[in-house]
Design brief:
The protein is α/β, with parallel strands linked by helices. It has helices at 30-42, 58-70, 88-91, 103-117, 136-148, 162-174, 193-198, 202-205, 244-247, 250-266, 270-279, 294-301, 303-307, 312-322, and strands at residues 3-5, 12-14, 16-19, 47-49, 78-83, 122-127, 152-157, 180-183, 209-212, 284-289. It contains 14 helices and ten strands.
C-alpha cells in the first residue's frame, strides 16, 4: 500500500480507502463489514469513510459494531463522518435536524455519530454540503470547537465550491481557528472539472487534501451497465433509481467500451483501470472505494499495481476517449 499525506497536514492515509455509502446498512451487514474491513487492513488500508446520513445512521452502527469486534489499536486506523442532511428523513422533521450546518445541529450531531460508531473521536469530520442559510463564520467556529473539544481531529468539506472553501479557510485564519484541511469531491473519468480546474489553486494556496469518492462513477466505469441494470447492482436498488439514466447513458457506455479495450491491452479490468487513473493524480490523498462483496474489494485493491502501468501515452489515450476535463 502507498500512503499519502492528507493535503499539508501530517496525517497519512492509504492511497486506497474503504467507504460505506450505499453498502453498509443496505447491502453489507455487520458480519460482512468485519470481513471486508479485515481484508482492507490486510491490504494496508487505514482509512474508513462514513457519514451520519448513510442508511439513516445504520451505516455508522454497522461500522462501529465491526470496529468493536475487530479490536484494532485506535492509532492504526482513520475514521470519518459527515454532517449536513442529518438522519431526520427517518427519525424526525425538526427544523434543526436536517439540511443545516448551524451550531446547534453540528454540536449534537457529532455526539450522536460517536455513539453510533462506538468511538471517543473521529479522525476526519466533513461538512457534507454547503449551507447557504447559516453564516459561514458560525459553521467554522462550530467545526473548530468540535476539534478543540477532542471529538474530531481534522475537519473539511464535501462538494463545496472553491470560493466557499477559500472563504471558510480565511475566516479560520483570521480568528486563529482550526482550518479546513480536506475536501471530499466526486472524481472520476466522467467528472473532472472541479478537481482539475476549479480547485487548482487551492492545493498550493491553502494545502487542500482530497479524499475522492465514486472513482467508478457509481459503477458506470465497470462496464456492467452496457446492456441494462444487473439485478445485484447498485443501480437496481430502489433508493438508487435516480441514478439509472446516468448509468444507462448510451454515449458514456460506448466510451466505457473503448476504455475496456485499453484495460485488456494492459491486462486489467475496466474498473481497475478507472481507479488507477484516479490514483495517478498526485493531488488525490486517497481514493475511496466501495464494495459489497469480497470479490469486488479484491479487484479494487489491484488498481495500485495497474497505476504503475499507466504511462503518459495510455493516460492521453484515455483522456481522448472521455474528452478532457469531462463534466
Amino acid at each position: 500500500m502507498e500512503y499519502r499525506r492528507l493535503g499539508k497536514s501530517g496525517l497519512k492515509v492509504s492511497a486506497l480507502s474503504l467507504g460505506s455509502w450505499v453498502t453498509y446498512g443496505n447491502q453489507v451487514d455487520e458480519k460482512s463489514a468485519i470481513e471486508l474491513m479485515s481484508a482492507a487492513r490486510d491490504h494496508g488500508v487505514n482509512f474508513f469513510d462514513n457519514a451520519e446520513v448513510y442508511a439513516f445512521g445504520r451505516s455508522e452502527e454497522v461500522m462501529g459494531a465491526a470496529l468493536k469486534k475487530l479490536g484494532w489499536d485506535r492509532l492504526t486506523y482513520v475514521v470519518s463522518t459527515k454532517f449536513f442532511w442529518g438522519v431526520a428523513a427517518k427519525f424526525g422533521d425538526g427544523v434543526n435536524e436536517k439540511n443545516t450546518l448551524n451550531r446547534k445541529y453540528l454540536m449534537q450531531a457529532i455526539d450522536h455519530s460517536l455513539k453510533r460508531l462506538g468511538l471517543d473521536f473521529v479522525d476526519l469530520v466533513y461538512c457534507h454540503r454547503p449551507d447557504a442559510h447559516t453564516p459561514l463564520e458560525e459553521t467554522v467556529y462550530a467545526m473548530h470547537d468540535m476539534i478543540a473539544s477532542g471529538k474530531a481531529l481534522y475537519w473539511g468539506t464535501s462538494e463545496w465550491s472553491a470560493a466557499e472553501i477559500t472563504a471558510a479557510w480565511h475566516i479560520a485564519d483570521k480568528h486563529h481557528l482550526h482550518k479546513p484541511v480536506m475536501e471530499q469531491p466526486e472524481y472520476n473519468l466522467f467528472h473532472r472539472k472541479r478537481v482539475e480546474i476549479e480547485y487548482a489553486r487551492l492545493y498550493e494556496d491553502i494545502g487542500l487534501g482530497l479524499t475522492t469518492w465514486s472513482p467508478l462513477a457509481s459503477g458506470l466505469l465497470t462496464g456492467k451497465y452496457a446492456k441494462g441494470v444487473p439485478a445485484d447492482s447498485r443501480g437496481s436498488l430502489k433508493n438508487m433509481a435516480w441514478m439509472q439514466d446516468q448509468l444507462l447513458d448510451a454515449d458514456k457506455n460506448a466510451r466505457v467500451a473503448k476504455l475496456t479495450e485499453i484495460a485488456k491491452k494492459i491486462g486489467c479490468t475496466t474498473a481497475q483501470l478507472a481507479i488507477a487513473w484516479c490514483l495517478k493524480n498526485p493531488r488525490v490523498s486517497t481514493v475511496i472505494t466501495g464494495a459489497s462483496r469480497m470479490t469486488q474489494f479484491t479487484e479494487n485493491m489491484k488498481a495500485l499495481d495497474v497505476a504503475a502501468k499507466l504511462d503518459s501515452t495510455i493516460l492521453a489515450e484515455m483522456s481522448e476517449i472521455i474528452g478532457a476535463h469531462h463534466a
